[in-house]
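Sharing a chain and its predicted structure for anyone who wants a worked example. Both blocks are below, sequence first, tokens second.
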Amino acid sequence: MTQVSIETEDERVYRTTHDMEEGGLSVTIAQALAEVDDVDAAEVIHDFSEYADPDAFDRLFRIRPSESHRHEAGFVSLKIQGADVTVRADGKIRIAL
């Protein structure tokens, strides 16, 4: 797995970005959580898949063939392993522990 770049917003809030033209949004989330909360990325994916289909989640904001965002101002917030995770259509991810 590739490493994700994490920025610290404050003591318990982190930000990263996913390139929405690439697949693997759920993997980016898992890697970010693994880095900031010292958990196993594979365990995050497993927990994630109990509540949502990672492939469907990846498709939710995938760039359209016309290269436009599906939901320009859209976002999804969910709780994964106790962390509040918000993903925006532009690929910005916020993790609050």
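Comments welcome. The chain has a mean pLDDT of 87.
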